[in-house]
Specification:
The chain is mainly α. It folds into three domains: about 100 residues, no CATH class; about 55 residues; about 45 residues, no CATH class. Helices cover about 45% and strands about 5% of the residues. The strands form two sheets. A three-stranded antiparallel sheet has the order 2-1-3. The chain has a two-stranded antiparallel ribbon with strand order 4-5. The longest helix has 16 residues. InterPro entries: FAM91, FAM91_N_dom. Pfam families: FAM91_N (PF14647). This is FAM91 N-terminal domain-containing protein.
Length: about 230
Amino acid sequence: MKKSEGAYYEQLLRFSESHLMLYPYHLSDITVTEMRLSPFSYYVNILTEMLNTEKSYDSLPNFTAADAVRLLGIGRNQYIDLMNQTRSNRKFLRRSKTARELLPQKPAKLTIESWWMTNVGAILESYVKTLSEEEKQVIDKLLDENKAIPAGLLKYSVVTSLYDRGLIYFDVPVDDNDYIYVAPLDGFVMNRVLGDYFETLLYKFFVVIDDQKTRINQLEKEDIKEVSL
């Protein structure tokens, strides 16, 4: 990656974090592999800054909040508890855990589907030394084939372990003829309703998608024309 290109993506990630935007999943091949910032680490950074500056949980846009719950397991109630802990520590000048240390150290449990495509993430020599033989074999396979591999072709426990450490990431393939269904967000509390252009796009999708399955190619092009990839 060229220096100017690296600076561009670094600025993009800083801007996204500071504006509480969704992780840029469409750039994962760069943000994870080159910039070494997984979605989990991205949301840890956001919540750390929010706790340190005592921002309300309501300041999180809805889709960002939902993604943070999915990856960190931290919703409104958990965030309030963390905020109380950090305030208590500052009030009594305790030398205890920082806001970052209070946050999860690995992603929440994720059900990995067999058809998800597994990609190699940021692999440093220091990381390789800590891998088991099975984990090394999976990483070598991904590197040798130089393309994503369906998760179902790899050992589940190994894939889970590598994912927890941010050494792999997943692409979820979507075809024009696929059907999508939006499941109820049980226990999710709506936050602010105004977000960035991508959040607005997702709301448009929700308007189009009813409680039945909707085919991808039925979504209006007008709904996505404002998104520049």
